[in-house]
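Researcher: Next sequence.
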Amino acid sequence: MLCYAAAGVELQFCAMQREDSSVVSDVARALILSNEFDRLCVIHIALLAYSIITQQRHQLPKQVRPLGLEVKRPRGCNIQYFHRYLLKRVELAEDPLLAPIAQQMEAIYAAAAACEYIIGGTSVRTTHEGVYSVELSPVATPMSGPPQSEQELAAAIRCVLLALQCLHSHDWGHGDLRWHNVVAETNCKYRVIDLESAVPLGSKPIAQVSSSDDNDSATTPNKHPAVMPRAWGPNAEALDDGVFTARSDLYMVGKMIEEASMNGPAAALAAKLVDKQLILDEALRDEWVVLAGSPLRQVANC
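Model: Next structure:
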């Protein structure tokens, strides 16, 4: 990564190694800005850097955030961006979804560590003051909605289903599947994030009325008094007689597909998932999903 250091009239261009950002190498001699020739050298290097960036722009993230940036989220959540990871901190008193499972989050992230379709979480801890924190990696591009092309949509849904396969094998549901909780590494590689919304499979929702995040809350009917993400549906349709099951997660996956407003195989799969007609293995064997995972399709998209 190209960088520079400046002091007074002296300017030094450097390069940080991707593998170890503590290793910095000079890419040119120190330039003296009071010298006309050196000022021209600065302009020349800047134009070269811009040329490289424009040639590689398709590989760069769509959203650029300065290192150290802190973003406040609802429910007492704070995200801080670093070079290789994100630091997520949550005030447990403000997050009734996370508070009951905070002590289990280290085990949840450990169980998910082998899955390349789930965000990695390390240094999980909860302080005596009730602040939960975790370091998340890799840093990828957040999704604000479904991918534009059907090929990329199928690839994303396949990745989400494979992430669920891992979580469900450890008796956990994700609990809040929506596009805002997916990040893109490439056009065919996606990861599920926000495991802090995880729900034990076979459990009943927390008996407490509260709002959810990202202006994404829903008021539940008296029949289902619960802390409930909107992704569960206005009347908790994701639940099975008040119980969160594997099909509850699949219901949310179906709703994610519906957001893309696709026809044909995509719409057919979405309808089956929303109607809870399929189990996870059947969804992964769906022809539309299988094709997304074929080597030729992946090479074409990535």
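Model: Residues 36-55 form the longest helix (20 residues). The longest strand covers residues 10-16.
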